[in-house]
Automatic annotation (TrEMBL):
Residues 21-247 form the ABC transmembrane type-2 domain. It comes from Ornithinibacillus hominis. InterPro entries: ABC2_TM, ABC2_TM_bact-type, ABC_2_transport, Nod_factor_ABC_transporter. This is Transport permease protein. Keywords: Cell membrane, Membrane, Transmembrane, Transmembrane helix, Transport. It is found in: Cell membrane; Membrane.
Amino acid sequence: MKSKTGVLLGRLLRNIMRSPDTIITVAITPIMMMLLFVYVFGGAIETGTDNYVNYLLPGILLIAIASGVAYTSLRLFTDVKSGLMSRIITMPIKRSSILWAHVVTSLVSNAITIMVVILVALLMGFRSNADILEWFAVVGILGLFTLALTWLAVIPGLTAKSIEGATAYSYPLIFLPFISSAFVPTESMPNIVRVFAENQPVTSIVNSIRALLYDGTIGNSIWTALAWCVGIMIIAYLIARKAFKRQLG
């Protein structure tokens, strides 16, 4: 399966390299949001930190990933509607290789986007005193979050009837960080909003990344974050597998 997945992965990566505007488009939105919040709203937002870009960056990275996985849905939808998937299925390859190629492509393209966003954040004053192990932990959390959202993206990619339907699911995912601790502390929110913000996945993930990057107290937030990522990933994978089997007929 590995060699076949590699061939399919190479096809998808070559398509991305031929049209790098995909990664550029995904990176521009979170970068513009970061510029807007830091240089326009940053002075009016009280977070208890002197460097707002440090506070903001974890949430911006999650928004970048949520934007990027929409292209996984689009690529799958295109393969299905063009008949390419039907042709690939007739080849002597393990059928699961088709989905895994799209998932690994999502990991690679989102990793590139994240690096671009972090480079811009460095130019804006982002600094971290995390050691190498803490950075590996951050990469691991972001990787799990990407996998979870990517398997979610596979579902509409296989089942949608239109391009709009294949990508529309990503809008709530992009909006979710706004109702979390990504931009402001949850303590400043009204009670009802605060309860939702403190009990949705993004807050625990953002808090964990923030603690790892800036010597904060991680506490139980990292286990909550991992539980959310793994739980979403497993459920999405099982649903995506069923959708794929239905697609195969």
